[in-house]
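job 3f2a | input accepted
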Amino acid sequence: MTALTGAVRDSGVVAWRNLINIKRNPDLLLSGTAQPIMFVLLFAYVFGGSLGGEAYREFLIGGIFVQTVAFNSSFTVVGLANDLQKGIVDRFRALPMSRIAVLLGRTSSDLAVSVLTVVIMSLCGLLVGWRISSGPLEALLGFGLLLLFSFAMSWVGAYVGLVARSVEVAQSAGLLWLFPVTFVSSAFVSAENMPGPMRVVAEWNPITATADALRELFGNPVRVGMPPPDTWAAQHAVLYSAATSLLVVAVFMPLAAARYRRVASR
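job 3f2a | predicted structure (266 res):
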């Protein structure tokens, strides 16, 4: 058996262990399902009337998709911190298994959670009037791009969880950085309405690019009540979203692995 095959096998075992833990504690899924549904209802029916009505609801769902899978990275943060605090990682170290399996298993299981969350959010979106107006290939590409972004965010979460180590710190750190990154974007409103430097950050924010890419691929409005954006990132949203997701994985996977080696050697 090659090292790669062994790593994939061991990662699958760890991922299955994490999913069984969720099955035994289904309340862990509450924040990943109830929170995005709350955001959909809040923005669609409370703010939607003044932001564009039905057209805004179709615009909104792309942003909600991206926000939801980004927030799901908190599962990775808290899960890793919990395993460290309870000594589970030390037990894994004592086993003849790949060192990357703990991290890859965690990010893979959280990707599976994101798949479930996306299904629930799709059903919720259909109930509030969202529809996919493009072809099946574009829709599949959109969902694939969304899951790639989710996988990238989980590696950021893995690094944050290893830095935090304690569950108490992880619960705050897992969401603290997500709020400004998510809301300074076009997830909920057009970046063009934002002032000065904040607008530039929002226009090049990967969350903006991924939300715009989903809207484009699903055949939804890219903007409501405003002309389409003319920045390079917006004009090439699908390409830019895929590139930034791969870049995040390329940066944070080795960072998380290096941090795991330092933590595990103590």
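job 3f2a | The two ends are 30 Å apart (CA to CA).
job 3f2a | closed
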